[in-house]
Amino acid sequence: MDIKDGVVCFHDTKYTRETIPNPINITYPLDTYGRYIIYHNNRTHPPIPADYHQFAFNELCELEVYGCPRSGFYGEKCSLPCSQYCQGENCNVIDGTCSVCVDGYTGAKCNKKCSNYTYGLECRNRCGKCNGGIPCNHINGICFNNCAAGRQGDKCDQECQVGWHGRDCKHMCTIFCLVPRVCDKITGHCIECPVGSYGAYCSKKCSPSCGNPKSCDKETGRCDTCPTGWYGHNCDMKCKVGNCVDPRTCNRTGGCSGGCKPGWKNLKCDTKCESGTFGLDCNETGGNCEHMEHCHHVTGLCTHGCNPGYYGLRCTYEQLCEPGYYGINCMQRCSSHCNISGVCHQRSGICKDGCEIGWKGKFCEDEQTNEGRSTIIDHYTIYSSAIAVLLVICLRCYTYFILEENVAFNKSAWQKYPANNLEKFGAERAVDGLYSELSLYGGQCTMSDYGHSTATWHVDLGKVHKIAHIVMYFPYESLPQDIFNGFADRFLGFSVYISNTTDKEDGELCFVDTNYTIDTIPNPINITTQISGRYVIYYNNRTHPPFPSDYHPFAFSDLCEIQVYECKFGWFGPHCENRCSENCKVPGKCDWITGLCEGGCQAGWETPECDKKCDDGKYGLGCTEFCGNCSLIEIEEVEYGKCHHVDGFCKYGCNPGYYGDRCLQHCPNGFYGDKCLFQCPVNCTYCHIETGVCEECYPGFTGPDCLSTCEPGRYGIGCYQRCSPFCNTPKCDFISGACVDGCKTDWEGMQCLELHDEYRLPEDLSTYLYVIDGMIIAVVINSMILVVYIIFLRRKRVQKMKSKEHGLNDVAFTKDQNRCISVITYKGNEYQEL
What we know:
Layout: E1 73-74, E2 80-81, E3 105-106, E4 112-113, E5 118-119, E6 125-126, E7 151-152, E8 158-159, E9 164-165, E10 171-172, E11 197-198, E12 204-205, E13 230-231, E14 237-238, E15 264-265, E16 271-272, E17 277-278, E18 284-285, E19 325-326, E20 332-333, E21 359-360, E22 366-367, H1 370-403, E23 404-406, E24 412-415, H2 422-425, E25 454-473, H3 488-491, E26 495-499, E27 508-512, E28 525-528, E29 532-541, E30 561-567, E31 571-572, E32 578-579, E33 605-606, E34 612-613, E35 618-619, E36 625-626, E37 658-659, E38 665-666, E39 671-672, E40 678-679, E41 684-687, E42 694-697, E43 701-702, E44 708-709, E45 714-715, E46 721-722, E47 747-748, E48 754-755, H4 765-805, E49 810-815, E50 821-827, E51 830-833
């Protein structure tokens, strides 16, 4: 009855003389049980509150304790039985909750079985790994459906011992592993194979053709290296690399390791350069060979000469006929009666700008009469003018609506030294889109002031643009025949700059006139450029005399129209005449000059222009993914075993042994064939995924279909192992090698390979010495016992002899059935029992 052995169920810390009730009703905690109720008070730790008496008392009138009189019941009148799964069937007398549950149950009233793979007291223990993931018994944790692979014991909570694997650890590991009999405890696969072996069970040998005959991939058997001149999975294919830079070697796929000789291409360098290319990697382009023949794939030479207009061995564009010559090998002279004397087309010899007045024919070799000259001139002038107008109209419509955009139209313009009448000749006149009247006073041109040594005009495009070309229209006055345009001398020597500021020095020179004369300056002028900028600046000066005789003494910026063209999205080239590829990463987004896709290609396309589908069995972004094992079917344009160049899907299914959209997955273990629909033979560890032929049988089975058991005397994987010579008979279990008829004398173990304990050698020398020491000590002790025994016998004999001499009675000790000792004395023929 020690209060220290119990539980405090109430302790007064707040009552005063005025507040303490009488009687006091104390409710115990729900799970309190006991035999003794102890009232305790003390005054052992002063100071104490003022209301407290200085001494402790236990003056009580009545103490009543209420509870169920019988254990195992609760509730009103204690009529409800506690749960049978409460430990000891004890529960709270008020609500029936259990303080502790029996094994396998949980909950306030212990009415719930352990779940979530738990068992035992308060469900604290975790189940082992039962077969099929089935929970263990909720009370004792036993697995009734055997153990999962790699586990053993009735609770499946023990790993397989070294050398065993599988369900319930019933299967022995193979001897072919790097460490024999040591394998994965679940699958039985070897952790590592010895050098020269591969496969899950290390039962396969690396190809003897490998560079290192004993070195190959543990899983696939692929040779790590091949000898020089051989390639392939097993290094059994001879390199065919006559056109390689190094003809002695090839890579693992049979391709040339160091590239191809000039004139050859592809991985194996087995294809000549084509489409007029030649040289190293077929990167050089052939010239204009006669009859459009291709040049020699190695040297680039034109074997039958050049097309008319070219000369040299390779007939390249750099080898065009010099001015004044044309035809085959540039042997013929242009006519001296061409409009520009001695200038004709290099191939045909036709005068480019027509004939001089008075001459006719393709080559201007026929002289005309005086009557026909004026008529021809008039007709030619009218016809040429009409054609020119139509071409200008068509070109404007085509370029505006389809390919390019004039980004200078109606933009803000500025002019240094403007003419006095700004309303009529303001700088904006040059970007208003009107240029049908090129007369300086026609109201469509801007005019600068007279008498200045420099002239500047610029247009603000509003933002930076990628400018493809600029078209400039100058004022033009129609004058009588053979009299030059009166304004032409004002423009000679002009420059055009493109800048991001209004200062030309911050920009880049786009064009400068150094060759034009008043007779040759064209109108309009089309300037091709590859410069980006916000401001297009026209500049001219007369600051550094002397000037050419055709130049006006002052500088002007008289302009009728300046058009600045930028390619519309999806077009590129000098006149935006080329369409960007729709296969660019952003369709139609390419470099406005070269046409190369910006940001790369969409999946399934390659080359800088993204104009070529992935080939050589590749697909995806950058053509870096390899096709799977697509079905080897050829239908129309579909090539053997090729997948879709974008997503890699195999349109016509997979080769036998593979499945999935891309045919990248091997058949699961135990299946093979088309769509992996066929099961391997019953005793196969695994079979060939294409043919179904067993590649390895379960231990104890052999044959192509693994239907035959090992012949007597052999067992295990492949039946390679012999039964122990220490079996009583040559028979052993064809799977495990266990001796069927027991072991020979002195041998034990399942396979009779272990000596009895008494025949086993000590583990080490120290143990051996301990045994010898023990034997010596035992011999010494036995010898001492023997000596003591001999001494005892001799003394006893001496005593007998003395007793006879003194007439002492002989004494004998006997035991009766009641385990009492009787002493009998002898004297002569008489006796007496004590």
